[in-house]
Amino acid sequence: MPSYIVTCKKDATPEQVEAAKQHARDQGGKIGHEYSLIKGFQVTFDEGTVSTMENHEHVEAVEQDQEVRTQ
Fold it and tell me: Is the pTM of this model over 0.90?
């Protein structure tokens, strides 16, 4: 299942972050890790699922979760 990192807007309240998570769940997403350093969370969707997370009013960015390496 593809995994994504959803970052909410910096001024989003806890209730607005929860609304973004509920929006992901409503689309069939499964919330994984919830971040404390940023207002965001990790979510997985079934392959081929069309999502509208980037259009949610409290979401700043959505990017595919991937491994990051340093040199």
Answer: no
Q: What order do you get walking across the sheet with 59-64 strand by strand?
A: 30-35, 40-44, 3-8, 59-64
Range of the domain at 12: 3-64
User: What is the CATH number for 46?
Assistant: 3.30.70.80
Q: How far are the Cα atoms of 9, 28, 29, 36 from residue 46, in angstroms, in the given order?
A: 25, 8, 8, 25
pLDDT tens, residue by residue, 2-27: 899 999 999 999 999 999 999 999 99
Q: Could you give the residue ranges of the DSSP H alpha helices within the chain?
A: 14-26
Where b means 16+ CB within 10 Å and e means fewer, 1-18 reads: eeebbbbbbeebeeebbe
SS3 36: coil
